[in-house]
């Protein structure tokens, strides 16, 4: 057992044995008083009573900070005293923890020793406190001064034979101010290599929506969701990943909405919700959420939307003029005739096979859509991380377009984003394929010459490192090595780099899988106070519904050695670009208002940013389809998207595995080892399998198996990858489908297994077979 010292520089004992995992049965309802108790207990353990009170009362309040949990918007007007959820509170506790990783910690642990520890143990050690360097051939990280760190990076960058040999990753927590300056630095340096977490997340949504409606963002507000007739929630687990969405769904239901949940798993929050702030949530059973639970086969959604489209056309035939919104289609859409032809020809037997549902349910859902005057379709990773993700989202959008459900109250597309500022980072130009008009505006404002050649996204960045085309990796947050697919390939790729730099708040695996030289640069988080030359600074973020608002950290930072992300970018820019560079880097660090003024000059819809962001609830960015039914697409109209129907058949003796989040993690950060809603306690190496499949494959619940993924590469060769030792759990999932947690299963996802057009790793459909583990007695 490891030592259990706590506090400054001590190791926190986070040892555990996967064989102790207990299975207690899945829950029907999400939240309730238990959720509040869990969040308070977690807060007290990590932060102590004073910081717990200081953080949880300021979370998502008008004068507080934006929750680093997810991108679901705050409700405006009368906010509740505690506008947070269990998992938002965990995200805050994770950042505002009193535990510290000091230079002494790194002196005691070699990199080799730390790389043996699980991700859970690493994040439990606390906040990083000072810049550290790993010199070539060294066994331990050592302290380094900030100036020396910037010089080291500048030397490496300026020694490259082309700026395109450097990669600048971003995760979605970075504020608008820091993101804007970061992309400005990268473009001033001379590359568009700005891969980000979005490439693994909602890239498919952006790609599909830009084709269909001309903008890659959702077209609804919270009020629209609350006032919808019908809300479809496909491929999303809000009870765990966007818990504050549940109270909006409850409100919508009280207004008479019908909810259709489309998911291979009966996720707790989709079935029932107990609002801990209401009496029935405290003493009763809560409220039912889904009126129709469509237990779809993994990857069957495109077929579902196409089949529903056909039934909608048939209903239009029975009662002409009642289903298709002809006026909208004629005035605003292109490609309707092709869509109608293709959709009328959809074979319903194929739809039933692809989705695994019965015809009665398909017809019931069609009837729900036909009766609806206002439909919202929400989705997340269950739709975006598939080979045919872009086509699937296009098909969902078609259903809305044919009924005129875009650009009217209570209706529209709602891709529910992940990271709290992932959408804002894109708006600020963190995009490897940013359009030329953005670069033109940047060049005009700053007198620089941005490159026009598109950069690498996440998957292409890994290929570039693997193939020796990129030698320096810089990560603005995130945990690249654990978030990306094909762990072995990615690790080898990073190890080939001359320099890897991680700008981070917490210790993670990306600090331990490193280039010849490696740097850890510790930074302030969302909850920390940020003081610069002109005083206390504020930052701003954009939520999933295009609302931009301020966030004010108030906690005393974990160490005086921390720098804000803005300060790190500006100092680095000075070191890399030299003192004569035209951008006013020093002034920007001193006063973030000046950054916001620059954003106002460059980014559309951000005029008067400093004033409008200070309005009580901030301001909403323009969205032409939502605001005025204008569509800035290739045709100048909303385009019906036409793709051949695709789904995911199950090969004989194999399973289709989806990789997903437990209730006790934030992406690669593992908060704890329980998945309360799915009834798992004390471990994460579990694989959820349909009971019929368990028997048919010759196993029983509780067996320990290796997951072996199978993939045919571009040359037609069969490849295999293995993740060892998972406990089989009998679970309600469609026949042929299985589920297990990410990041443990990332080694199974081949680098080339990507979505068509968006290049997003296909994390939700991996062909696997089960093999009895060698360790299974
Ligand atoms: N507490 C917490 N909050 C988070 C995060 C976190 O890790 N922890 N992560 C944040 C981030 S970055 C993101 S992107 C979001 C992720 O939010 P989600 O997308 O909800 O996250 P996943 O766990 O990947 O869950 C995917 C859901 O899709 C379902 N699914 C899988 N395959 C299919 C399919 O083929 N069809 C359909 N219809 N459903 C399918 C799964 O059963 C599961 O319910 O959450 C954000 N919020
Ligand atoms: N198999 C599989 N793989 C997936 C997914 C999946 O569903 N299945 N989901 C994908 C998705 S949707 C996403 S978004 C990615 C997530 O990919 P990332 O965003 O790269 O990963 P995170 O785990 O969110 O990053 C956590 C780290 O961010 C740092 N951090 C936290 N807050 C801050 C901050 O304020 N500033 C800075 N500089 N650093 C900070 C901490 O050091 C922490 O260790 O993973 C993807 N990978
Ligand atoms: Mo995400």
From TrEMBL:
Keyword Plastid: no
Keywords: 4Fe-4S, Iron, Iron-sulfur, Metal-binding, Molybdenum, Oxidoreductase
UniProt keyword Metal-binding, yes or no: yes
Molecular-function GO term, any one: 4 iron, 4 sulfur cluster binding
NCBIfam families: Fdhalpha-like
PANTHER family registered for this protein in UniProt: PROTEIN YDEP, RESPIRATORY NITRATE REDUCTASE
Protein name stated in the entry: FdhF/YdeP family oxidoreductase
Lineage of source species: Bacteria, Bacillati, Actinomycetota, Actinomycetes, Mycobacteriales
């Amino acid at each position: 057992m490891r030592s259990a010292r706590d506090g400054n520089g001590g190791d926190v004992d986070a040892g555990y044995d996967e064989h102790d995992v207990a299975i207690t049965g899945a829950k029907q309802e999400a939240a309730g008083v238990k959720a509040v108790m869990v969040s308070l207990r977690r807060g007290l353990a990590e932060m102590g009573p004073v910081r717990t009170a200081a953080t949880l009362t300021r979370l998502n309040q008008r004068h507080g900070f934006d929750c680093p949990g997810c991108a679901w918007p705050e409700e405006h007007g009368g906010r509740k005293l505690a506008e947070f959820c269990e998992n938002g509170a965990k995200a805050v506790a994770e950042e505002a923890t009193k535990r510290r990783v000091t230079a002494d910690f790194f002196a005691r642990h070699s990199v080799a020793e730390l790389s043996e520890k699980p991700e859970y143990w690493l994040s439990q050690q606390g906040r990083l406190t000072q810049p550290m360097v790993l010199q070539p051939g060294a066994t331990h990280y050592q302290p380094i001064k900030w100036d020396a760190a910037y010089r080291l990076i500048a030397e490496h960058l300026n020694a490259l034979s082309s700026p395109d040999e450097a990669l600048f990753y971003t995760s979605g927590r970075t504020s608008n101010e820091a993101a804007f300056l970061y992309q400005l630095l990268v473009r001033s340096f001379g590359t568009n290599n700005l891969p980000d977490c979005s490439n693994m997340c909602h890239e498919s949504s952006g790609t599909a929506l830009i084709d269909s409606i001309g903008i890659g963002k959702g077209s609804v507000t919270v009020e629209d969701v609350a006032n919808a007739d019908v809300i479809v929630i496909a491929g999303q687990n809000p009870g765990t990943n966007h818990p504050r969405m549940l109270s909006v769904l409850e409100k919508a239901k009280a207004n008479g909405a019908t909810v259709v949940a489309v998911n291979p798993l009966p996720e707790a929050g989709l079935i029932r919700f107990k609002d801990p702030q209401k009496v029935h949530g405290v003493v009763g059973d809560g409220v039912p959420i889904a009126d129709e639970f469509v237990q779809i086969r993994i990857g069957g959604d495109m077929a579902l939307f196409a089949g529903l489209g056909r039934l909608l056309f048939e209903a239009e035939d029975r009662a002409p003029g009642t289903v298709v919104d002809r006026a909208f289609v004629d005035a605003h859409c292109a490609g309707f005739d092709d869509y109608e032809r293709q959709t009328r020809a959809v074979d319903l037997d194929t739809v039933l096979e692809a989705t695994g549902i019965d015809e009665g349910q398909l017809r019931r859902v069609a009837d729900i859509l036909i009766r609806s005057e206002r439909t919202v379709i929400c989705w997340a990773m269950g739709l975006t991380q598939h080979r045919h993700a872009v086509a699937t989202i296009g098909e969902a959008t078609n259903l809305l377009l044919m009924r005129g459900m875009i650009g009217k109250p209570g209706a529209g597309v709602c891709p529910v984003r992940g990271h709290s500022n992932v959408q804002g980072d894109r708006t600020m130009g963190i995009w490897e394929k940013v359009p030329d008009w953005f670069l033109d505006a940047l060049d005009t404002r700053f007198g620089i010459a941005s490159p026009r050649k598109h950069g690498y996204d996440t998957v292409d960045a890994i290929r570039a490192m693997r193939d020796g085309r990129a030698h320096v990796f810089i990560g603005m947050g995130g945990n690249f090595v654990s978030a990306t697919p094909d762990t072995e390939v990615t690790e080898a790729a990073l190890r080939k780099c001359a320099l890897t730099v991680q700008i981070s708040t917490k210790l993670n695996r990306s600090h331990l899988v490193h280039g010849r030289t490696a740097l850890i640069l510790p930074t302030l988080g969302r909850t920390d106070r940020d003081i610069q030359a002109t005083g206390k600074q504020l930052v701003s973020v954009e939520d999933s519904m295009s609302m931009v608002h301020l966030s004010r950290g108030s906690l005393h930072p974990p160490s005086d050695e921390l720098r804000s992300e803005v300060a790190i970018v500006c100092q680095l820019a000075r070191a890399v670009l030299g003192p004569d560079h035209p951008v006013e880097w020093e002034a920007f660090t001193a006063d973030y208002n000046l950054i916001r003024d620059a954003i106002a000059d460059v980014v559309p819809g951000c005029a008067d940013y400093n004033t409008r962001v200070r309005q009580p609830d901030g301001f909403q960015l323009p969205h032409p389809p939502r605001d005025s039914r204008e569509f800035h697409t290739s045709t100048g109209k909303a385009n019906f998207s036409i793709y051949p129907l695709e789904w995911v058949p199950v090969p004989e003796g194999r399973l289709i595995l989806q990789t997903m989040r437990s209730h006790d993690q934030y992406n690669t950060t593992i908060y704890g080892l329980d998945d309360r809603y799915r009834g798992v306690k004390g471990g994460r190496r579990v694989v959820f399998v349909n009971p019929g499949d368990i028997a048919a494959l010759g196993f029983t619940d509780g067996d320990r198996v290796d997951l072996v993924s199978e993939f045919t590469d571009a040359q037609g060769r069969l490849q295999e990858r293995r993740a060892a030792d998972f406990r089989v759990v009998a679970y309600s999932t469609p026949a042929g489908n299985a589920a297990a947690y990410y990041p443990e299963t990332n080694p199974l996802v081949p680098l080339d297994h990507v979505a068509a057009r968006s290049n997003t790793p296909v994390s939700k459909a991996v062909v696997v077979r089960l093999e009895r583990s060698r360790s299974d007695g």
